[in-house]
Each structure stands twice: as structure tokens, then as C-alpha cells.
Records
---
Amino acid sequence: MQIYLPIAEMPVDMFVILGIGAAVGFISGMFGIGGGFLLTPALIFLGIPPAVVVATQAPQIAASSLTSTLAAWRKNAVDLKLAGVLLVAGLIGTQLGVMFFNAMSKIGQLDTVIAVSYVALLGTIGLLMLVESVRSVLAIGRVKSGARKHEESWHAKLPWKMRFERSGLTISVLPLGALALAVGFAGAVLGIGGGFIMVPALIYLFRVPTLIVVGTSSLQILFTMLAATILHAVTDRGVDLFLGSILMVGSVFGAQFGARAGAQMRGEYFRLLLALLIFSVALRFGLDLVAPPIDPFTATVTETHR
Amino acid sequence: MRRLLAALFCLCVLPPLAQAEMLVAAMSRSRIDITSNFTGAELAVFGSVERDAATIARASGYDVVVTVRGPRGAVTVREKERVGPFWLNTDSRKYIATPSFVAVLSNRPLAEIAAAELRDKLRIGVDTLVTAQGARSKAIDEEEPDFRRALIRIRRDQGLFSDRDDAVSFLTPTLFKATLFVPGAAPLGPYDVDLALFADGAQLAKTTLSFRVIKSGSEEAVAAYARTNPFFYGLAAAAIALLVGWLASVVFRRD
């Protein structure tokens, strides 16, 4: 069934969009991430203008983050104070990201910026996770070689320390803010929630308990993406309500089944699969940058007289 | 002086309204409304060749070329080149006032209707409609035709530029019909429909029609609101996101 998108100004097959939403939702529910890093390339491949894709992802990610936040809230797994700190920095990052996005879009380097950032971000995170998960998969069945020794944390000397009761830690606001700023920026530029950066960073760098990380990062992403929705609507006007609504419906359904499938999987295999997924997306974008393009020419409409 | 004489001569010899043939045409609709299930629309152009009493019928018959042009806009064509290990956008050309949609419909191949020089002069044919504007840029354009060719190729692949030499059919020797398909991805705005009548390789008459492609119904309502009240539109999008997210968590609650 074809439906005409009012902002993208083109017809798309509604069931294809629903299917993409459901598939990405399945993966996102399974791994507890937004899934924007898969949705963006899929929608651009369908011929939807990149500006519309990135802007429309914001409300879609907001919808799925609210579902995860509510689930975590019921388990009392949300650190409001930590989420607040991440949020303030994240909002600044989002605003900077939207400005950067519009500037690059004008210069014509947007596709390069998106490709390079994807490769750098996903490649680094995917590789780190791959190494870690292969090690733990190999270690299955072996006896644990004792608890990790307590080391002086790298951010212990930074000023402006803050106590986060729910997460049970006292850390400086500076590295937390820098992380949230970077995630907010990447979210606005790449149309991703940034969960796949935020979650491992909070776990590995700041040693926040895993359960609380998922709930807190969902809440932070929820607010960041709500703000991004409004900022995109006001600045580049790319938010397509029709496209967004179809995606949301598809992805919340997919996410439920994904969450069930994910819960039944062994942790080590789970992380290995996620690492492979992230790494293969990075590889695909990397190839795009390096391989000779099928058509070296692209045409962009820069102004229309109506 | 010689020019003045020539003008006087013309005035005396040729009757007023000098054309021997006239083209009269009308379209099946002057507006294409885009609703949420729009996937394209067909449009028919009917025309008749009107001859005055003094004109004798032409043995070779008539040819008609219908050129449909969508709203114009500036297009930037970029070329990716190898920079170290990467392929990056390096060079670009800007084409101002380029039609976003072109369909050239005729009753037989353009090459058989008129010579290439005449087609260039009259701007008949897809390739003649995309040119860099102004003398200086025209020189650049001719030096590097790659960008122009690439633009035409890309638009053809998107189905936005097309030519069909079987889209015009003569119902009688002087009455013809042209069918135009406006695809779902057709840009919104005003479209010009230029009709040109040819016989024996020369243009005899021409006329222009127009139609508009506009959003209507919910499409227009949503787009207009996004344009006029972007902040509240953004708020509405955020509210829908919250509603869907909340509904999902209620519907699928497992505890």
C-alpha cells in the first residue's frame, strides 16, 4: 500500500516502512539500543532525503526510549540525578549538532561527514566490543581468574565531584558532561539516539551498575530526542509525521519480540552478536568511503521556485 | 533601409495573423491533487491543427512535440574524486533555473521531425533543456559536458526526465492526443506544457498550456502546519512519540 509522505514529498510503500521499523525495533529491543544507526542507512537507501531521515528519526527514537524508560522505572532502575547531568550536557550537544548538520548540508559534505563519523564511531566501538566479547566467549567454562583488582579511576583527580546515590558513585561532572555532549551532538548529526555509545561508556568508563545504565540512558535519550524533534522541526523542517508514525508503530512491535529473544540469550553471545552487528555497519560505511562509487556524480536541488 | 523595405514587403504580402496553421489545445485537467494515496497520475492533452481557407493540406502530414517542464530550481551537481584512499565530493557545477521535471512527447523520433540545429535553437528535446545560464557559464558548460550529462542521466534514472516518441497520436490528420504520466515523486508546483507543430522539418505554430501539482487534504494540512507553525508541529511530533511509546509499554506490559 503506497502512502505519500507530506514532508519528504514522495510516495513510499507503507508495509516496507512498517517492516523496516519492525526489523530495527527487534534488534533495538534485543540489545537495548535505539537502532537509529541501522534505520538511517535503510531509509536513505529507499530514496528518502537524508535531511528528512535524520530529522524524522528523532521522534521515532523518543517513542522507543519512552517504552524502555517506563520498563526500567517499574524496576526502580533510573538514576534521576545522573540522567539530569547527562541531559543538560546532552541538550547543548544536540543544539550544536543540529547547527553543524545544517552547515554541512549547505557545503555539500554531509554524506562524507555522516560516512566518516559512522565509520569512526561504529568501527571503534564495534572493535572494542568484539575483542571484549570474543575473550569472554572463549572464557566460557573456564574458572574466573579472581575479581578485577581495584584501580584508581582515571577521573578521580577532576574537580566538581558529585554524589549519585542511586548509582552508588561519586564522580566529577566534567567527564560525564563531555560524554553526554558528544552523544547529543552525534545524535543530532547522525540521527541516532547514541545508546550504543552511552551504554558501554557508562559501564566500562564510569562503572555504573548495568541495570541502572539502561534505564538512565533511556531517560536521557528520551529527552534529548524530544528536544531534537523540536529543533529539527524549527530549523531544517525535515520531521515527517507520516513517516515517523509508521516507523514508531513498526518498531515498538518489533522491540517487544526483540526484548523477549534477547532475554533468552547467553550474555557473552549477546554481546558478540551486537559487536558483530555494529562492526559490520561500520565496515559497510567504510567501504562506501574507499570503494569507487557506482556513479561519481550526484545532483542536489538547492533552491526551488514555486 | 534594406531592412525597412523587407519589413514593408512582409506586411504587404502576408495577410494579418500570418500563420497558415494554428494550434488549438486543451488538457484533461489543470490541477493534479496529491492525496495520501497518490502514486502518479495520467494527463491527456488534446489538440487540433486549424488551417485557414487559403492553406493547402500538406502531403507529408504534421508532427507534434509536447514539452512538459516542472517547476524550475537550482541544482548542484557534485563529482566524487579520489583523495588519498577516500572518495570525496571535490568538484561541482551549479545549474540555475533547471526544470525539476521534463517530459518530451512526440508522434515520432525527434530526429525525424526536425534537424538537430533547429531542435537546439527551439529547445526541443531533453538534452536542450538543461544548460548553464549566461554566456560565461555556457562556455564552461561546453568545455565540461560531463556534469550536464550526469544531471540528465540521474534525472532520467529517477524517472523525472523522459522522452517518448509514441506518446502523441493523431486521431485524424489534424486532431491529436498526447498522454503524459506524472509520477508519484513529481515535484510540486507549476508545470508548463509547450506544444509545437512541425511539418517538413520546420516549426509552423506553437501554443502553451499549464497545470499545477499540489498537495491536498491531509498532506497539505500537515505540510502547511509544519511550514507555518514549526514549533507546535515539533511539539505535536514529540507528543505522538510519547503517546506511541506509552501505549506500547501499556499494551505489552509483562508483570
---
Amino acid sequence: MPAPEQKKIRIATTSLAGCFGCHMSLLDIDERLFALLEQVEFDRSPLTDIKHCGPCDIGLVEGGICNAENVHVLREFRNNCKILVAVGACAVTGGLPAQRNHLSLADCLQEVYVTEISLHNGMIPNDPELPLPLDKVHPLHEVVKVDYFIPGCPPSADTLWKFLTDLLTGRTPKLGADLIRYD
Amino acid sequence: MSQTALSNNLETAAHPETLRRVAIDPISRVEGHGKVTLLLDEDDHVQQVRLHIVEFRGFEKFIQGRPYWEVPVMVQRLCGICPVSHHLAASKALDQIVGAHTLTPTADKLRRLMHYGQILQSHALHFFHLSSPDLLFGFGSEMAQRNIVGIAAAYPEVARQGVLLRKFGQEVIRHTAGKRIHGTGSVPGGVNKNLSIAERDELLKDIYQMIGWARGAVHLARQLFEQNLAEFNAFGRFNAHTLSLIRADGAMDLYHGGLRARHMDGSTLFDHVNYCHYWEQISEEVKPWSYMKFPFLKSLGPETGWYRVGPLARVTQCDFIPTPLADKERQDFLAFDAGNTAGATLGYHWARMIEMLHAAEAIKELLHDADLQGDELVVAAADRGERQERGVGMIEAPRGTLIHHYRVDEHDQVIRANLIVSTTHNNQAMNEAVRQVARQYLDGRKLTEGLLNHIEVAVRCFDPCLSCATHALGKMPLQVELLDAEGKEIDRLVRGVCDTEPSCC
Ligand code: SF4
């Protein structure tokens, strides 16, 4: 990386209980990625090998919270990012993973690890290396303060581009009706 | 290399409580949520290495009771990198349920086009955005540079082509599925749109450039092997059986076929097996330390029956690739270094680029096919067979064989679902690769960030989709409370939930 001449905006991104579709949508800005890189640098993100979020200007979080580790990472983001953004339906509402919220965890476990047709042995993973699952999947704002919410599953690349370019130029982000979708 | 390390398979240390733990958490530049833990003795000898998948979804449970036509749209939300694979595997399973056993030519080809768009974009993303930094800068290179930003600065043309190849694949998906991520183009029994002349022409405009760049990417992979032959061939190497779908004539077919499995000694274990009874061939073992199961071939058993899937398995076990440029590259790959590289873990990258070239050629052929402008989109009621209760869909997703299995009752509701995703098939193979790398590079040495990245380089060869692989749930004997910013309890973390509800286990 060339030494930054002027201070670049530092962005961290992470996926909690999400499918990475929101990250893919960010990459869907295509060639505009190179223009973005003129102005920003990435801290922790699936694109870099930085494992912990350091002090940042903007944190983009995809996915809701489904286990203890998600809570830990989210709090680390909140503590380090001046602006924290809930990106996509999962982060804003819990999204598809929250479909399990009306079921008992026990039933889900039974289904996946004991009942399924192709299983050799029925056993539920229980190693301390596996983070504790939460009873329910939660949206981000139930655990930390969130500064912006971007709906969509995923929000389109144009939506994310408009949002980021507004922030980078010091404007309050404004998304027109055409850029806000709830699918 | 230590004797102790050599004397066991490194899966489980005899006395883990006496060992020092080092975690690579999260594994970065992969999709999904995983970590690797290493246990080391006081002389820095590696005693245990495990790749853990740390997240869960519960899809198989919460899909129950939903109307079946929602499935192809919902299931994509398991994975935003290969949503089309889930979209199509689910559609194929539901085709059987609605009795649509032979799709119309327009539907079949449109789905194929969508799928090859997906292969192209996913392989481009993996090679250029995620793995090229390791390959071009070195496995132990400076961390700050080891990412797509570093590539854009040092190799701007490589980065540009990667971004544009991925863009093109995404545009193929948009024109066939309606949307780049989580589209809706495929429905039980067919598709809901064709490809207009305008859409076709837009894609035709760029396809020849894409084929050229994809070929360049294959040559880049080859060149990297030429420059680092001994190291690349040996890196994380292990022997494994292979599994993939295969066309009736032995050709690579990523959309449909029968199951072929080869023994690591080169002999055929089974061939052209109808996948609708996959559980007769494949079983899955659960291990306590990962949410991802461990599939194996039933005839060989869990100890030795595990196998690899994905580009390396497909390119090495097909008889030919049905597009000329990719088939030429396949032959070069198989012959390279007297066949050694075709068994190398890093050979996945080269094989992946051959498949990307094949996808680009297949897209070109499909774009010239007038059936794509046809208007018979779904199988007409009169042409359908009996409705079935059970449907199994299989497809070769970018990362390997993907299985979707549903049962639907007479009220159109899903009553059972079972998924075995591509990355799950590679679970044991990935564990073998990281253990091998631990023996080769880490054992007895002071661990540095650069050395630890070697472990991740091995994981990345498989392009694992740890997000797909986490549709399961876990239980552990503990309880913790989750408090909001004001200290109010909003949830409990539940371990031991099954212990308190005996009806469950
Ligand atoms: S909002 Fe949609 S695209 Fe984003 S992580 Fe959730 S399921 Fe994936």
C-alpha cells in the first residue's frame, strides 16, 4: 500500500449473523471500488487480515446477533467506530436467521444433528471453542447504539455507494425512494 | 519436524489441558465464520489443529411449514456469495415435487446461463479479491499489503481484470435472475423470465474480452506454479478420494449429472449414480468441536471414506471439458510436472481458473442460442408427471457438490429439509490440509503472523463458504445473560438446553 499522503477515512466491516450478501453488494460497486480506495483504507474486514477492529471513522456491520461472539465483535466495533452503520435486513431486523426466533433452540438442534436422514451419528456439538448460541437472533440496535440503518436484502450497490459518498464528502446521507428497498 | 507431531493425525491431542492454545480467529479473506485453533507443547511442537465452524442458522428447521415456492428465494439467504447455487439446487428439488421432470429448453438454458454466471463471478472473486495477495506477494508477506488494496497498488491490471470479470458474472446473474444478489428468476418447474435481445446483446458485447482475461488468469496460475514448483506442489498436500457430478458422456457439467467418485488410487468407486438417493452413498459424521458435519462415502466408512469436492475434484475426474479452450487447459494442467500438480492442494487455484474459463466459454455458447428468447418458461400442467412428496436437487456449486432435499405435504408445506453444502464435503479435506501445513511450517518454530497466514492460505485453497456451512445449531452446558446498553437483560445464551428438555435428545 502506498503511504497515505492525506489522512484517509478508515472503514471497518464485518459480517455477524449474515450471509455475506451485503458485503457482496458493496463489491458490486465494481470499478467504483478503485475510486473509493483513493479516499478510504480498510481496517478489519473480510477483505483484509486485520483480526480486531481498531479506531475507525466508519463501521459497517452486516448480519444480526446470534451468538456470544457476535456480541463481542459488535461491542468492539461500537467502541472503535465513530459512526456505526447497520447494513441490510439482518442487521436492521434480524433478517432470515431470525426466522428461528419462534422455535425452540432444542428443536432446531435435534433436527439438524440428530434427526436428519444422512446422519451417521446423532450428537450435538458442545466444544468450548464454539461460541454460545443465543436463544433468539437480535438486530444490532438492541445491543448497541446504531447511527444509521440501511434496509434491503441486500441494499443495492448504488445505495451503498450513495451512502458512503455522502458520508465521505461530509453530507448527511440521504437515500431517495429509489435507493431504499425492503426485499 | 517432531516425532510426536508425526505420530498422530493432529486431530485430538492426548492432554489438551497441558498445552498452549493459539487461535486464528476469524479466518479472514474467506466467506463465512470460522477459526483455526492450534495446541502446542512447551517446545512449540504442534499437538492438535482444528478448523472450527462457529456459527449456525437452523434453516432445516425453520423452513418447515413454509409454502414450498418460497424455498428457492429464502434459501439463498444462507449465502450471499453463491446464492444462485442454492436458488437452483432448491428449484431442481422442487421440479421433482411438482412433477416437472424435463424442463422446457428455454428454462433449462436460462438456468444454466445463470449458473455459469455464478461460477464466473464466484471464481473471479475468490482468485482475485481473496487469494491473489497470498499468491502474488507470498504466504508470509507483509500483512498490511496482503489484500485486494495491495494488489490494486502493485498489480493494477490484475485487480482491474478481477473486478471486471466478477462484474460480468454478476451482470449475467442480474439479467437471468432479476437481481445480482438474491434474485428470483428460477421457480419450481422453470423460470419466470427469458433473456431479451437487448440483454443478450449487452452481454455479448463483453464476452470475448472475458474469455481472453479468463485465459490469462489460467496462465497466471500456471506461471505461479512454474515459479514456485517444489513449494506449491508440496504445500498442505494430502491424498484424497474425489466426488462430483458428471454428464452421461463423462464431460464436466456443473448444472446436472450423475454422481462419480474416484478412489485416491485412481480407480472408480461409483459412476453415473442417480443422486436422488444420495444417502445410500454419503453419510455425515458429527464431531463435537464443529458445527460443520463430516461427510464420507458409506462404502468406505468414516475413517477413510472422506473425499474432496470442488474445482480440483471436478477438473481431475471428468473425462473432458466440453468447451475447447478450457479443455486444452485441463490437459495442460493434468500433464504439468508429470501429473504432480493435479494432486496439489494449491492446484485448486489453477483448476478454479480453468473452470472460470469454461464458464466464460459456456456463457458465450448459450448467448448464441435462440432458445433463450423462447417463451415457454415453465412446464405446462399437461406435460407434468405425478406430484411427488420428496425432491432432491443437486448441482455443482462453485465450491463443489451441493445437495438440497425437501419433503412437501399435500398442503404445499415443507415438512422436512436436509442440505449438504459444498464446503461441508470438504470439511475433513480442509482439516487435513491445515494439519499438513502445521507439520510443514509451524512445528517447533516461534509462531509469527506470517507463519500463521500459511494455515489460512491452506484453508483458502478450498474457497470455503463457511456461511453456507453454518445452517446448523449447537448446544453447550452453560448460561450467560446478554444485557443491552442500559444493563437490561435481553437474552440468554443457552448451553445445555437439551439437558433440561429430555424430549429433545
Ligand atoms: S440482509 Fe440479506 S444480503 Fe445482507 S446479510 Fe442478511 S440475508 Fe444476506
